[in-house]
Structures are given as structure tokens and as C-alpha cells.
Amino acid sequence: MMLKLASLVVAAAWLAGSEIHAQDFGLRVGSMAPVASVQALDGSNVSLAQYVGKGPVLIQFWAAWCATCRELMPSFARAQRLYGSRVKFVAVAVSVNESIERVRRYSAAHKFTHTVLYDARGEAVERFNVPATSYVVVLDRRGRIVYTGVGGDQDLVAAVRKAL
Fold first, then answer.
1. How many Å apart are CA 130 and CA 144, to the nearest integer?
2. What's the pTM?
3. pLDDT tens-digit profile of 92-138?
4. Domains parsed from the chain with CATH numbers
């Protein structure tokens, strides 16, 4: 698992200059979302299963140090602004080179209004087959994956529309 987490750092650096687009990596579109346990920012355990099957969900795997994730922020914010009343937006911070405290500070400084979680053990990274930070998975209301993508130039508005 540590190898998988360490590979996120390498992959994020590589992807920053690449032309990788949606569906090149990660989970298969059409499959059901996996189950994984993460932490809320107060340290309590949370299962990602609590968001699945209750309506559309967008899950982004990110890190405070990730330049590609910062590049994706406007698209994420626009999608949330347009569909936040109909879609659950969840950001799962990876534990590579950051602590839960750093995630708390970063989230507060950027005034995030979506759910922010922390993957302390890398369970979600492994189960969601996360290839790099900025990886986005969109689920429909049944929990079926309708979109995956990685990179800062993803059109998350179009991705969310696939779930509605």
C-alpha cells in the first residue's frame, strides 16, 4: 500500500505535463463504486459507502501540495455551484506528504463548502485504484461509475451531467 501511495507523488508530477484525459486510468466506467473507510477532519471514521446509492456523487482524490488539483479547483467549484443541491461533492485527501492537520488548515483557508475527508491508511486510494492526485470519480444515484478522469483540465460540469 505504501508503494501505491508513493506512486501517487510520481504520477502527479508526471501528469502535470501530460495529455492524459478521462477514462485512461482508474476504475472501469459502468462498475459499482467500491467501499472504503476514511476519516472526517475531526478524526472520526467515515465509510464512503454512506454517500453511495443516495444520489449522484463526485469524489475527488487530492492533496494540498498538488498543483494539478489547484488547477482543477475552478472546474470543481463551478460544478458544485451549478449542481450542489442535486449532487454530493466529496474531496478525499491522500495521506502522501501531508497530515490531517494540514488538510484542515488548507480546507479552512480555501473556505471549502464540500465534504473533505482524509485517507490516513490509503484504503480509499487502493480500492478506488487511484492513479494520481486530481483523480475524479462520478457516481450516478445507484452508485454506478459514470465518469473517471485525472488532470487539471477536466470538465467536471460535463462529468456531473452524466450522473443526472
1. 17
2. 0.85
3. 999 989 999 999 999 999 999 999 999 999 999 999 999 999 999 99
4. 2-161 (3.40.30.10)
